[in-house]
Specification:
heterodimer; A: 105 residues; mainly alpha; Helix Hairpins; 4 helices; elongated; B: 545 residues; two-stranded antiparallel ribbon; 24 helices; 1% strand; globular; CPA3_antiporter_subunitC (chain A)
Chain lengths: 105, 545
């Protein structure tokens, strides 16, 4: 199933994506771009986890554990992104607070 | 004793995680008043369970037989695939600290919430009704980090912790006072830290083929992959507990939060990431090449030393209570990291937790976590009270507070005594252990840092206390703008007093912490350290009292 060298290539690419995401996160000032770049960086880590699922050459099924981890990781990043976007909106426009009513019953 | 234990007690391990988690979901649905009581009841029940777990850990045969931890395989799935919960002495102590501080903070928030109806500004003490579900989720995540034996599970718990903590910081205010910006900054740093930690987890899995920490330590070999994983975990977790070059979010986020939240963040949340780092160091560290481990430890120790001095120096230059206390946390984190170089020597590890709990360095660090957790939580709550009573926490506006709110000022003073490590406080017992360890290991260069840091701590505590005195020659002391109910004043005082009084007789605590491997280490050639474990501080406690 696996082409020889593909996992190695994927590992290098995964690290590259992580580094690109993190550098962008640290260098960019705009809050929304920072949130997006954080997601890119997490994509790198997820790619690495997926590469780990490859179990040697041959027809072996991939290891399900890293795949389960990636699923969990994606869910967590979605939650983090949601919270980050809500906070970023408050920072950019302090008047824009939908949930004001909810917090002062 | 162990005959009774194995059947029932391990079954309690999931309770401190799941009970608060369920309560958090419920609390989000309830009206504000009911939330507070549900929250307090949950924390109290959890505290009882945690006490039982601690008693169970203390009753284990331990002593190097490999049975020094309670463990439970969730849903009957054993280690290579399943998630195993474990609690040893270190977990038990941190669980107990979390419950005690959590209980006091819950009572504080409940009392503040009850008066918030009459006096809306009271809700600034704890952040309003949204505090409860978030705090319960935070509580569940903290307990989860302490009982998990699984690396990925630890990552999930850390993320839950981050989400809850960031949301709690954002409760710090309506538009304009920067709480949202501080929370977002905290979130960014924490998530970058998590990603690096997840990378480390992935590398460990690649090498060991399991996420179970003790099992991974058996399967993994010393190699570049393990070393990179340890370095990534160090940097990632350091970002989460605000070690020196990565600390800049903390003095922004902690003061921006409501007082009760600041107390939780500084007293408890920081400790979860630190705990994980110690765990990794204790279990995977012994497998790594000693040179690499010592190098990483030295780097961490150097950063920690700068943190001690820089944090204290910045604290001295602040002119508001909460930023001073937040910078003090930056400094204290430095002390806690000094553990890594102090224990980086080759320590034999055969089972879960065997690498830690050996020698006075580890015990000192754990006791310091305890002392700092109690003292810092008390200090932040007291600062919140002063800020409420005097409409702001500027040092200039606090003149005369000592005559009108003596107990609150005493709380700050007592907590400062423990943070500085003056005898007979718990902080002293901890720092004594660290000093002993540094000298026994021939690493004398950490000693001046430890001592100078203590001196600076006294200085900024004095700065805060002095600001509350009546100005000489000035007008008479002003009465506070508002009177505070007794409950709000007593809670922080109990925490601060506890962090001092526990130091009078720390021998039992030290013995409990050392129980995991005391004998093994003594036989493994680490004799000066292990032998110096309990007696000096016992004697020291006697001197002080």
């Amino acid at each position: 199933m696996t082409v020889s060298g593909l996992p190695e290539l994927m590992t290098v690419l995964a690290c590259a994506v992580l580094v690109i995401g993190l550098s962008a996160h640290l260098l960019v000032a705009d809050l929304f771009r920072r949130i997006i770049s954080l997601n890119v960086a997490s994509g790198g880590v997820m790619m690495l986890l997926l590469v780990l699922a490859v179990r040697g050459p041959g027809d072996q099924d991939p290891d399900p554990v890293p795949q389960a981890l990636v699923l969990t990781g994606i869910v967590i990043m979605a939650a983090v992104t949601g919270l980050a976007l809500a906070l970023a909106r408050r920072v950019e426009d302090p008047a824009d607070e939908d949930d004001r009513d909810e917090e002062t019953p | 004793m162990s005959g009774l234990v194995p059947g029932l007690l391990p079954g309690l391990l999931p309770v401190p995680v799941f009970l608060p988690l369920i309560a958090a979901a419920l609390a989000a649905l309830l009206p504000a008043r009911a939330r507070a009581w549900l929250g307090l009841a949950t924390v109290a029940c959890t505290a009882v369970v945690v006490t039982a777990i601690t008693a169970g850990v203390a009753g284990l045969p331990g002593r190097g037989s490999g049975e020094d931890a309670l463990s439970l395989a969730l849903a009957g799935w054993e280690a290579p695939v399943g998630i195993v919960l474990r609690a040893d002495a270190l977990s038990a102590v941190l669980l107990l600290l979390t419950s005690v501080v959590g209980l006091v903070v819950s009572v504080h928030a409940l009392a503040a919430g009850r008066d918030a109806d009459a006096l809306p500004s009271m809700s600034s003490l704890y952040g309003g009704p949204a505090f409860w579900p978030l705090w319960l989720a935070l509580f569940a995540a903290l307990n989860g980090v302490y009982v998990t034996g699984d690396l990925f599970n630890a990552y999930v718990m850390l993320e839950l912790l981050t989400l809850a903590a960031v949301s709690l910081v954002a409760l710090g205010g309506r538009a304009g006072n920067g709480a949202a910006a501080a929370a977002l900054r905290y979130l960014f740093v924490a998530v970058v830290g998590s990603l690096l930690f997840l990378m480390a987890v992935a590398l460990v899995y690649a090498e060991a083929g399991t996420l179970d920490l003790p099992l991974a330590a058996e399967r993994i070999g010393p190699g570049p992959l393990l070393h990179v994983a340890l370095a990534l975990a160090l940097v990632g977790l350091a970002a989460k507990f605000a070690l020196f070059p990565l600390h800049s979010w903390l003095p922004v986020a902690h003061p921006a939060a409501p007082a009760a939240v600041s107390a939780l963040l500084s007293g408890l949340v920081i400790k979860a990431a630190l705990f994980l780092l110690w765990r990794l160091w204790g279990i995977l560290g012994p497998v790594a090449e000693p040179v690499v481990l010592q190098g990483l430890g030295l780097a961490a120790g150097a950063a920690g030393s700068i943190a001690v001095l820089w944090g204290s120096f910045m604290a001295l230059r602040r002119r508001r209570l909460k930023p001073i206390i937040a910078y003090s946390t930056v400094a204290q984190v430095g002390y806690l990291v000094l553990l890594l170089p102090l224990t980086a020597g080759p320590v034999g590890a055969d089972a879960f937790g065997a690498g830690e709990g050996s020698g006075p360095g580890w015990t000192g660090g754990v006791v310091l976590v305890l002392a700092h957790g109690l003292a810092k939580a008390g200090m932040f709550l007291a600062a919140g009270n002063l800020a409420l009573a005097y409409r702001g926490d500027r040092l200039r506006g606090l003149g005369g507070a000592v005559t009108h709110m003596p107990l609150t000022v005493a709380t700050i003073g007592l907590a400062g005594v423990s943070l500085a490590g003056l005898p007979p406080s718990l902080g002293f017992a901890a720092k004594w252990q660290l000093l002993t360890s540094a000298l026994a290991g021939g690493q004398w260069w950490w000693v001046p840092v430890l001592l100078l840091g203590g001196l600076l701590t006294v200085a900024y505590t004095a700065l805060m206390v002095r600001a509350t005195f009546n100005q000489p020659g000035g007008p008479d002391a002003e009465p506070p703008a508002r009177r505070l109910p007794r409950t709000l004043v007593l809670g922080p005082f109990v925490l601060a007093a506890g962090s001092v009084l526990l130091g009078v007789a720390p021998a039992g605590l030290l013995e409990f912490l050392g129980s995991g491997t005391g004998d093994v280490t003594a036989g493994a050639g680490d004799a000066p350290g292990a032998a110096g474990d309990v007696p000096p501080s016992g004697a020291a406690g006697g001197d002080g009292s």
